[in-house]
Amino acid sequence: MNSFKPTTRTKLKRMVERGEYDRGMVYRILDEGFVCHVGLIIDGQPYVIPTGYGRAGDSLYIHGSAASRLLRSMAGGIPVCVTVTLVDGLVLARSAFHHSINYRSVVIFGTATIVADFREKMMALQTFTEHIIPGRWAEVREPNEQELKATTVLVLALEEVSAKIRSGPPKDDPEDQELPVWAGELPLRVEAKEPVNDPNLRPGITPPFYTLNYSRKEK
Amino acid sequence: MNSFKPTTRTKLKRMVERGEYDRGMVYRILDEGFVCHVGLIIDGQPYVIPTGYGRAGDSLYIHGSAASRLLRSMAGGIPVCVTVTLVDGLVLARSAFHHSINYRSVVIFGTATIVADFREKMMALQTFTEHIIPGRWAEVREPNEQELKATTVLVLALEEVSAKIRSGPPKDDPEDQELPVWAGELPLRVEAKEPVNDPNLRPGITPPFYTLNYSRKEK
Predict the structure, then answer these.
(1) For B91-120, how does the pLDDT look when each residue is reduced to its tens digit (9 = 90+)?
(2) Are the beta carbons of A154 and A115 closer than 8 angstroms?
(3) Which end of chain B has fewer CB within 10 Å, C or N?
(4) Which whole number is the average pLDDT over B174-192?
(5) How far apart are CA B212 and CA B136, in angstroms?
(6) Could you tell me if residue B219 is inside a domain?
(7) CATH code of the domain covering residue B72
(8) With the C-alpha atoms ordered B104, B110, B111, B117, is the resulting torsion angle positive or negative?
(9) Cα(A107)–Cα(A160) distance, rounded to whole angstroms?
């Protein structure tokens, strides 16, 4: 299916024109980002934890990080909300009221479960590494059994998903258009700087190609 | 008080060395970011909503956005977790296992309440605009009464707060140091591009100074 079906949780109530359910569009946003915010409930209190992720097909793999102990104790999985947000720019209107941010965000609802199988876990870690920096996995030492055990990976099906997008210029009221105030967009981009060698780097090893033209944008 | 007191919710259980409770350090992170992820519970389900924010003293002001209707219906406020994450770079180790991300994040627990008073609301919106782009508020048309009514602003006291920071090179195991693999850090920065004029911009108006050297880093 090429579109996500809106549910009561993913259907927008406001700014309906910003809603987006096309799977291709959603996946382009997920593939450009690499840090998500995982929302979960512990003792009736919401927690929001930033962590890395990777996508493989219709699954999202998440590093367990701080939530791992909690999650491991829950056999049946835990309801989560995972949000990925890309900030594209500031929208500067002539009126304070119409200032905005251009962004693309994806919200995923579902039940995160622990990846227990070693082969799936290895595959998930490869997805994870390649998602963050394509080309890296083939060069590094693969996780050994002990490391696999020490790593918590969660998987979440991409089923109940929506995106929200704002782009373009500000939308001032007609009566403000003549104000002597600059209006427009200030684009923001995430850019990579020069790679920094590890202080213990063996002599003669130079930064690999994939660190030199690194960009999150689709090529 | 110059340090936040760790609570059961903000005390780190793992990677204790990454925890940070210094108020100045926390506020520098909050002041560099401008998009937060607000976690809240609706019908037992966690929601994570990205939105803009601004800080004034020991208060965080949040744009209500999608949550506004829900929040307006709750007289006594709503427990939230607000997380701000700045990504500083990719940490590339010789082993897949020790790959990481350099980041600075702040997690705030508390009860968000609606700002109802018009004067405080106006002040909050000024804080909000100046937080995102300093110098802008003085130039734009201020919100009128109708716009103030249509805007939901939430305030959250900065009391139960912690930061988490990872910086520096990868930490490979001693036996991996001799592998013929490049290791180091790939720094990532948010950068502003050329401002884009609104298509309806009046002739003769040029982008203001604060759009030309825009940076989230402290000057």
Answers:
(1) 999 999 999 999 999 999 999 888 889 999
(2) yes
(3) C
(4) 96
(5) 13
(6) no
(7) 2.30.110.10
(8) negative
(9) 8
B46: containing domain: 16-171+194-212
Q: What is the pLDDT of residue A63?
A: 82
Question: Out of A85, A96, A205, whose CB is closest to B137?
Answer: A96
Residue from A7, A71, A85, A141 to probe the interface with B (highest B Cβ count within 10 Å): A141
- How many domains, chain A? 1
Which DSSP string do the residues of B21-35 spell out, in sequence order?
Answer: -BHHHHHHHHHH--E
Please report whether residue A35 resides in a domain: yes
How close is the nearest chain B Cα to the Cα of A24, in Å?
Answer: 21
> Does the pLDDT value for residue B66 go beyond 60?
no
**What does the pLDDT read at residue B76?**
63
- The Cα of B9 is separated from the nearest Cα of chain A by a number of Å equal to 9
Calpha distance A174→A172 (Å, rounded): 6
Mean pLDDT over A177-182 rounds to: 96
Partners of residue B99 in chain A, C-beta under 8 Å: 129, 132, 136, 140
Check whether A66 has a pLDDT greater than 80.
no
Q: A92, A167, A171: best mutation site toward chain B, by most B Cβ within 10 Å? A: A92
Q: Is the pLDDT of residue B67 over 70?
A: no
Does a structural domain hold residue A126?
yes
Distances (CA, A) of A15 to A19, A165, B36, B66, B154: 8, 10, 20, 9, 20
Tell me which residue has tokens 């991996």.
B176
User: pTM here?
Assistant: 0.94
The tokens for A196 are: 């920094």
Mean pLDDT across the stretch B138-153?
Answer: 92
Q: Average pLDDT of A53-58? A: 94
